[in-house]
Amino acid sequence: MTVPEKKHMNEREMPFLDHLEELRWRLLKSIIAVVVGGALCFYFIQEIFDFLVRPYRHALQMLAETSANPGVTQDSRLVFLGPTAGFMIYIKLALTGGIVFALPVIFYQLWKFVAPGLLIKERMAVPRFTASATLCFLAGAAFCYFVVLPYGLSFLLGFQTADLVAMITIEEYFGFVTTILLVFGLLFEMPVISYLLSRLGILTPEFLRQKRRYGIVTIFVVAAVLTPTVDAFTQVLLAVPLMVLYEISIWVSKVAMPAEIRAALKTTE
Hints:
By secondary structure, this protein is mostly helical. It has twelve helices and no strands. The chain is flat.
């Protein structure tokens, strides 16, 4: 650490109580952003509801076009079993949407809180790291929304017969959708994690190549554990892109590894 960098950190040092006070204000601003975003989402709640139900309707349309089973229903309506369930699901959707729309503010407040304790190089890298993590999460959620959900729901609803009809409640449906969107978004962070660990010298592309077989087995185990359903079809839809991301992570690790760490590893071989 250079002298200017040490001086910069010492100038930014604050007492413990001052840190708590700053943290309280950062949290308060984040909560306000979530409330404002939730209120905005509640104003457009019907559009958000239709957006999330669209994969379900698409799945029913696919079933109607491909299935010869007369027992498959085309009723795209969801039901609720309690007098307050419909209202509460709107509140939950608005709150979830508020958190999503407030993420830039939350990330900014988190960044402002931790920035004084970081070195100059670290402070410059964090915004790029945050942007990459956000893009990867959105890419995973988009892949799930446009590919996995329609085909996965079509597969699951295809088990209907004349005597077995699906009657899905809004709580179960939105719990399923939000869970699987979150799972795909988080698992698509694999290249970002690979980049971070490689920059720190913890992970190497050689290690990823050598452990590829174990990685593939682990991917299928993770897909089986994290998917909210027990059907193999949905698990495969999660495992296949993860295997592609594993190969991308090898390339990312090779690019991200600092030259001095790569040279040190070669000398130890």
